[in-house]
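Input record, target 12 of the design panel.
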């Protein structure tokens, strides 16, 4: 039985998110240009009396604005537009759509206010304080409920590939955010991570890497799978490759976080896991790139004539470059050279500006004329945007490649006698100054083309009027299904998978783990053979995955299982074992004033330029002292290892210089360190320390397991 239904799509939400993305993209990139200028010319940090405009506070604002404001709103615009058309139904709740939009913008404004004020948790890409984290979770839940509710009321039985990536993104981001944001408030505007030291580092980069994976990559891949075929007028190149791309990416990505902590105090087994799974990511990532590019087959003329296609093809190419370079940088020997240098900055901006930025531009140029029932105001301006933007990216990336490799080689260089060839760290920063200026030019060029796009889109919208899309859809009443996969995904199999993951997480290694893997595979094979014998796995002549696409709940559960296994295996062993091992060394908790000092260090964003992790490399031990060990950080809430050295490592700087040196260094860094590009922190000399808050802070730390006695606190 077939019935016709009239469906009016909610394109108001799409328009709202699109224009918010354009606005916040301009703001985020402007702040990026400002901090690029500050690195090229330290004077741009101000006179030392205006802390809220200094690099340490603006850099987190830049990253949050670009990732969560610009790309986030772009993702939501694409998801709201494509989901309704793929499911042939309106979003389930206009109210939840409005809550999602206005709540997300309020969170962005809160970040723009709190970060320059120094209200931060001091964890990269997760700087926002506890009360904003709660708001993020609530708004994300509203988005998730709206999305999955729409899946339930859909008028299209099977889920298209773009929707697979949306499902994975929504589920995984929720898990990542909630776990990494677990914190105990010490005051209304201040909190401490519940994790400490090595645990906190692993959880943070499990989150940090997978924020890149499941916020900046998988939802944008979903957008690619929808908008690329639409722009070309041809179906995606390979359905089978889409299946392999999706499941391999979702399962493998979650394991790769530890590659941010290679050659650190993280246990070797965790580092090795990160390396192995990062290298394995080459295959599915490039499978997705190939699938995207070959969708253009037979329509190559569009690449010359259509600016939308130019942006999409360039974006997919940058995705391929970034996903080749990431695994390469996860190899220990390459990581030893690249980590903490500007090479990493080049890598991440290739993804942000090339993959995310160009994909957003292509989507905007395709969407706005359709949302307003008109033609693009100027294809000539769009083409100019493409070529000048490409030049800006190349300038930026090339400058940071040269700077990063120069820094890595200078830090490692030894004389024939085995001493440091460049003992003064600032020699490497001085060698990078020209590259910082070139990076600034590239950033300015990219920002100017983004503003050109914004004006072009504005003129396009002004020439038309907001459209309301109403379609008639024919819906067939569901029929009884012949064959299913319920046996394969029964509670027994689910318990087997969960039990194996838990056993690995609790530290079962070696031959026992190998036997567990073999048993699991054998049971899986028996189950599949049994199902095949019964004719299960085929539905009206269709393959089993197409059947799975018609079962949204089952599909969602399987995605969640695939994601959670990696997190369990990585995180639980450290939760159960690392603190106990560290306690054998009996580390000394921070004194009251040291704790207050760490809060100031965190507030000023010092971790964005300094590391506190000495790697077991010859040149590093010669320069900084003995390698860092896990037990040293057991009371660090949060950890402050850092990931970029614009200044030297500070792990063992205590006692190295007299107090007067430090005082002068904070007032005027150039007075003690010729060639430094560090801002002046003269305002600290006139800022009174609030000692009344220290007992509250120490009590919070005590609740987190730091052994402060009542006498220590009093």
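The sequence produced for target 12 reads:
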């Amino acid at each position: 039985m077939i019935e016709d239904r009239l469906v009016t799509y909610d394109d108001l939400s799409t328009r709202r998110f699109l224009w918010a993305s354009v606005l916040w993209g301009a703001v985020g990139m402007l702040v990026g240009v400002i901090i690029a200028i500050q690195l090229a010319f330290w004077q741009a940090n101000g006179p030392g009396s205006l802390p809220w405009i200094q690099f340490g506070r603006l850099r987190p604002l830049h990253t949050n604005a670009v990732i969560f404001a610009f790309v986030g709103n772009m993702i939501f615009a694409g998801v709201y537009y494509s989901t309704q058309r793929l499911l042939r139904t309106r979003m389930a709740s206009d109210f939840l759509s409005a809550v999602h939009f206005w709540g997300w913008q309020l969170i962005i404004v809160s970040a723009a206010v709190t970060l320059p004020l120094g209200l931060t948790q001091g964890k990269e890409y997760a700087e926002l304080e506890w009360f904003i984290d709660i708001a993020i979770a609530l708004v994300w839940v509203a988005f998730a409920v709206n999305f999955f509710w729409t899946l339930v009321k859909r008028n299209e039985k099977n889920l298209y590939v773009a929707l697979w990536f949306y499902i994975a993104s929504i589920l995984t981001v929720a898990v990542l955010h909630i776990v990494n944001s677990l914190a105990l408030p010490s005051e209304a505007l201040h909190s401490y991570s519940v994790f400490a030291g090595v645990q906190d580092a692993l959880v943070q980069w499990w989150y940090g890497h997978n924020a890149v994976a499941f916020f900046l990559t998988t939802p944008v891949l979903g957008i690619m799978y929808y908008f690329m075929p639409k722009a070309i007028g041809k179906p995606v190149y390979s359905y089978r490759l889409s299946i392999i791309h999706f499941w391999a990416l979702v399962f493998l990505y979650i394991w790769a976080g530890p590659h941010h902590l290679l050659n650190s105090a993280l246990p070797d087994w965790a580092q090795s896991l990160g390396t192995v799974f990062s290298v394995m990511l080459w295959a599915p990532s490039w499978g997705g790139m190939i699938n995207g590019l070959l969708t253009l087959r037979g329509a190559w003329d569009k690449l010359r004539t259509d600016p939308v296609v130019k942006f999409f093809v360039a974006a997919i190419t940058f995705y391929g470059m970034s996903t080749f370079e990431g695994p390469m940088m996860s190899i220990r020997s390459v990581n030893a050279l690249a980590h903490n240098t500007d090479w990493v900055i080049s890598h991440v901006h290739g993804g942000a500006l090339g993959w995310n930025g160009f994909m957003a531009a292509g989507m905007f140029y395709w969407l706005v004329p359709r949302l307003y029932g008109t033609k693009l105001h100027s294809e000539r301006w769009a083409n100019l945007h493409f070529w000048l933007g490409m030049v800006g990216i190349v300038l930026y990336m090339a400058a940071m490649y040269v700077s990063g490799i120069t820094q890595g080689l200078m830090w490692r260089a030894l004389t024939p006698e085995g001493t440091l060839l460049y003992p003064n760290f600032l020699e490497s920063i001085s060698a990078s100054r020209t590259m910082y200026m070139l990076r600034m030019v590239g950033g300015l060029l990219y920002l100017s083309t983004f503003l050109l796009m914004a004006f072009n889109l504005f003129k396009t919208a002004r020439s038309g009027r907001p459209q309301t899309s109403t379609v008639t859809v024919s819906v067939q009443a569901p029929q009884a299904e012949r064959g299913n996969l319920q046996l394969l995904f029964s509670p027994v199999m689910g318990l087997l998978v969960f039990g194996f993951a838990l056993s690995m997480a609790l530290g079962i290694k070696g031959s026992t783990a190998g036997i567990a893997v073999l048993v699991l595979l054998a049971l899986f094979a028996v189950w599949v053979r049994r199902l095949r014998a019964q004719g299960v796995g085929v539905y009206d002549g269709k393959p089993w995955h197409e059947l799975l696409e018609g079962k949204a709940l089952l599909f969602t559960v399987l995605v969640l299982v695939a994601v959670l296994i990696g997190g369990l295996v990585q995180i639980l062993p450290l939760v159960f074992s690392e603190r106990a091992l560290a306690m054998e060394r009996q580390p000394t908790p921070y004194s009251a004033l040291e704790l207050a000092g760490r809060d100031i260090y965190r507030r000023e964003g010092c971790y964005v330029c300094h590391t506190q992790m000495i790697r077991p490399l010859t040149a590093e031990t010669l320069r900084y002292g003995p390698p860092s060990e896990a037990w040293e950080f057991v009371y660090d809430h949060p950890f402050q290892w850092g990931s970029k050295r614009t200044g030297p490592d500070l792990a063992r700087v205590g006692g190295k210089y007299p107090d007067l040196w430090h005082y002068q260094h904070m007032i005027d860094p150039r007075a003690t360190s010729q060639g430094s590009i560090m801002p002046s922190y003269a305002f600290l000399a006139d800022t009174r320390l609030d000692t009344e808050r220290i007992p509250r802070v120490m009590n919070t730390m005590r609740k987190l397991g730091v052994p402060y006695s009542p006498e220590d606190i009093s």
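Strands lie at 2-8, 183-187, 190-193, 470-476.
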